[in-house]
Write a structure and sequence with these properties.
two-stranded antiparallel ribbon; three-stranded antiparallel β-sheet; 7 helices; alpha+beta; 10% strand
Length: 222
């Protein structure tokens, strides 16, 4: 188990909220190669999920609140931001949240950014100038990545636990394991009985998350 998480391409795309074809293209063209494994089954890390979101956002034309637009960031700015992301203390991902990791449209990374903040002597960053890479992430392709720490109130993602897979908090019950039971035809009432360690509400949230991740892959493929 990799402490940073280990996700195959479809899982990384669904969690990041970035189209699968884009994730594969970036890996093939040396934009963001998976950092856990680049052979046979490629595996992306937890920080890679933020990297995917960051590249996607930086490479889009951004609309500001006053109706003005900001052109896509250059690839040098994107690569500089990826370098900053890789240098962040790995201990951040092993904690219990309570922080944010943001990127501004110049391609600079900020930990604990609030969306409106002072960055050295530069002007204050406003909505539209910065995106929190851990918060829910949506794209024009109708994909929507969940919060990468708390995807639902009763769910958590902790890179050092269960390979970084979403799970019901205070358990080792992965959301994708519950979704697999549904795909096999197990009725939801029976799943409640099979797992008394989890509340019905938590199981419902787990299945709802997995439906969202499935929609991400379907929307991007459509």
């Amino acid at each position: 188990m990799n402490p940073r998480g280990a996700y195959p391409a479809d899982r990384a795309a669904a969690l990041a909220g970035v189209p699968l074809s884009t994730v594969r293209y970036w890996a093939k063209n040396d934009v963001l190669e998976p950092s856990v494994s680049q052979r046979r089954v490629m595996l992306w890390s937890y920080p890679d999920l933020m990297g995917l979101r960051m590249i996607y956002w930086l490479r889009q034309t951004k609309e500001l609140g006053d109706g003005k637009t900001v052109p896509a960031s250059s690839m040098p700015a994107v690569r500089r931001a990826l370098g900053q992301l890789r240098e962040l203390d790995l201990a951040l991902w092993m904690g219990n949240g309570g922080f944010s990791v943001s990127v501004d449209r110049a391609g600079d990374i900020h930990v604990d950014a609030e969306g409106v903040q002072e960055v050295g002597n530069r002007q204050r960053l406003l909505d539209g100038d910065i995106v929190d890479l851990l918060r829910p992430f949506a794209t024009p392709q109708q994909t929507r990545g969940p919060d990468l720490h708390q995807p639902r109130p009763q769910l958590r993602i902790v890179p050092g636990k269960l390979g970084g897979e979403p799970h019901i908090r205070r358990t080792r019950l992965e959301t994708q394991a519950l979704a697999a039971l549904v795909r096999r035809g197990v009725e939801q009432d029976k799943i409640y009985r099979l797992y008394p360690i989890a509340t019905q509400e938590a199981i419902d949230q787990a299945l709802d998350l997995e439906r969202q991740l499935g929609r991400n892959l379907s929307a991007a493929a459509g």
